[in-house]
Amino acid sequence: MKLGRLNHIGIATPSLEASIAYYRDVMGATHIHEPFDMPSNGVKVCFVDTPGENGTNGTQIELIEPLGADSPIHGFLAKNPAGGQHHMCYEVPDIHAARAEFEAMGKKVLGETRIGAHGTLIFFLHPKDMNGVLTEIMETPKPGAAH
Fold first, then answer.
1. 120 pLDDT exceeds 60?
2. Rama region for 119: left / alpha / beta (φ>0; ψ in -120 to 50; rest)
3. Active-site residue numbers?
4. Three-class SS of residue 105?
5. What pLDDT score does 145 carry?
6. Full set of structural domains in the chain with CATH
7. Full-model pTM
């Protein structure tokens, strides 16, 4: 598997509003997207753009807050009440080929391949197989994708 572009770092938070204020007021973020609900994933999401080279966008920060009682983020926040790094997300050109390759390597894929917050297919790999980091693999978004 060839390492793809680091698309975003997921940060779980008990308060999206407080985290947005932190990135705006303390970290100086100038481009914060509108928060939106993802009921299918049990989260409310807000992307924060970081600057890249030559005026391009860099890696995004994905702020995620639990949405509803069944949110998978509740367990993370129970262990980390202040929030924190939840996952790292890398892009791949072909999600199905990537999943097959990780499975062939014996890496544990968590759940089904599904649509993620960028509107493209994703899956997660178990931290015990990924050097201790919950890892999201996403198909590279098409140009002009929403987030």
1. yes
2. left
3. 136
4. coil
5. 57
6. 6-139 (3.10.180.10)
7. 0.90
